[in-house]
Amino acid sequence: MSADLTSAAPVRVVIDTNIVLDLWLYKDPATPALLEALERKTVQWFATQVMRDELERVLAYTHIVKRLAFSQLNAQHILAQFDTHAQLMPTAAKALFVCRDADDQKFIDLAAEHKTQLISKDKAVLTMRNRMARLGVAVAKVFPAHLPV
After folding, report:
1. Rounded CA gap, 134 and 85, in Å?
2. What is the 3-state secondary structure (H, E, C) of 29-56?
3. What is the DSSP secondary structure assignment for residue 104, as one 8-state letter?
């Protein structure tokens, strides 16, 4: 990593629940750059209490509980990672654009309000890339998305 990037202001991101699971449960090979950036604090992860509540709810799903056990982890471990790395923000106002999947709107709203990158694999979110770009939001499956110039 170059000295210019480490001395720059952190890149702001909103991370959807599936990516959070990819980071700390599934250890998805697409996530090391984001994980390193979180640990080095070169990204600033914005989230809301509603997002944390959703993660907590998802961590109780039967198939997730089984995966946690297989990985020798527990829900508290994943929630502790969220608490360590996420900066809780107030719930954002409704964005100009509405997502087809109402469950994903909270990520759209927060990213739009703070003009962050939005990291998501969700098809409904990814189809909004062009509209979100008009609001100054890069939507991508992996980090880094197009870094600000």
Report:
1. 28
2. CCCHHHHHHHHHCCEEEEECHHHHHHHH
3. G
Check residue 97 and report its DSSP letter: S
Strand-pair partners of 139: 118
**Beta strand residue intervals within 91-142, DSSP E:** 117-119, 139-140
Topology annotation, domain 3-140: Rossmann fold (3.40.50)
CA–CA separation, 50 and 91 (whole Å): 8
- The whole-number mean pLDDT for each consecutive block of 10 residues of the chain, a chain of 149 residues, reads 60 97 95 94 97 98 97 97 98 93 95 96 95 94 64
Centroid of chain to Cα 16: 4
For residue 11, the surrounding DSSP H or E stretch is strand 11-15
CB atoms < 10 A from the CB of 52, how many?
Answer: 17
Helices 75-85, 62-70: inter-axial angle, 10-degree rounding: 90
Rg (CA), the chain: 15
Beta strands per DSSP E along the chain: 11-15, 43-47, 86-88, 117-119, 139-140
pTM: 0.89
